[in-house]
């Protein structure tokens, strides 16, 4: 197993690679892993690296400390109210960069699994919702509490509304109440709830299962999944059919079908 720090000067984000799985760990426990400018930049840089890393087939997003992520760094943001424009330029920039980082998770060729222990609030909850899959420890809690401080969680709303049923998403956004792990599972925010402290282990088990599949198939399927969600029914079927034709013509599909018929393990080539 190898490990390296994405931004070594601040160590706000750690990366560990093992068995074709990369684990990114938020590393600002003293600041409740709030999404500072440095952490947003570190995540952006590392996600871009992962997008080009053909040795990695699945990604886990975890956090050090008792809080998964408390969302945006409000101290950092509030300091800019003293700017000439009361912070408008800064808020626009930092929120735009955070939104772009969240979209990188969705567009990453590899599936991303959130491993959540502790509390995930506001943009931290958005981070979980942006992952393709998520596992929560039994003591994990989720919340979009902006309404309590006069700041509706509008950007977290985008990810939540694409994961949860509308009324569940609105319940979280309008009430701002803490949601327990089992309710987050019922809402569709997380896939599985495991014993406290076991989220990372379960996420790794899932990641290893994913990593055993064809990387081309994973990339093709993930991209098509999100593309078709934005389409009407007829167009979605047309698009999915075209994707499947191209997938059928790929060497990995030929190999996988052949291996199945010959009752042997496939040998993926990623093409």
TrEMBL record:
Keyword Lyase: yes
Organism, scientific name: Chelatococcus albus
Protein name, entry field: Enoyl-CoA hydratase domain-containing protein 3, mitochondrial
UniProt signal peptide: none
Task of the protein: May play a role in fatty acid biosynthesis and insulin sensitivity.
Lineage: Bacteria, Pseudomonadati, Pseudomonadota, Alphaproteobacteria, Hyphomicrobiales
NCBIfam families the record matches: PRK08139.1
GO molecular function: enoyl-CoA hydratase activity
Record key words, sorted: Fatty acid metabolism, Lipid metabolism, Lyase, Transit peptide
């Amino acid at each position: 197993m190898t490990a390296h720090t994405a931004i070594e000067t601040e160590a706000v984000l750690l990366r560990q690679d093992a068995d074709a799985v990369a684990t990114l760990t938020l590393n600002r426990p003293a600041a409740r892993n709030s999404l500072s400018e440095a952490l947003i930049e570190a995540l952006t840089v590392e996600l871009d690296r992962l997008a080009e890393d053909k040795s990695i087939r699945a990604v886990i997003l975890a956090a050090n400390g008792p809080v998964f992520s408390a969302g945006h760094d409000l101290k950092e943001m509030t300091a800019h109210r003293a700017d000439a424009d009361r912070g408008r330029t800064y808020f626009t920039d930092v929120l735009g960069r955070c939104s772009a980082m969240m979209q990188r998770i969705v567009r990453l060729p590899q599936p991303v699994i959130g491993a959540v222990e502790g509390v995930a609030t506001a943009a931290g909850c958005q981070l979980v919702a942006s992952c393709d899959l998520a596992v929560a420890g039994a003591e994990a809690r989720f919340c979009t509490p902006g309404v309590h401080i006069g700041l509706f969680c509008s950007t977290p709303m985008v990810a939540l509304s694409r994961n949860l049923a509308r009324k569940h998403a609105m319940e979280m956004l309008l009430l701002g109440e803490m949601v327990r792990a089992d309710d987050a599972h019922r809402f569709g925010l997380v896939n599985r709830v495991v014993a406290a402290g076991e989220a990372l282990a379960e996420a790794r088990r899932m990641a290893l299962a994913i990593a055993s599949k064809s990387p081309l198939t994973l990339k093709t399927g993930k991209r098509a999944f999100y593309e078709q969600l934005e389409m009407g029914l007829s167009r979605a079927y047309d698009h999915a059919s075209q994707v499947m034709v191209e997938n059928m013509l790929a060497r990995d599909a030929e190999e996988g079908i052949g291996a199945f018929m010959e009752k042997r393990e496939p040998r993926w080539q990623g093409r």
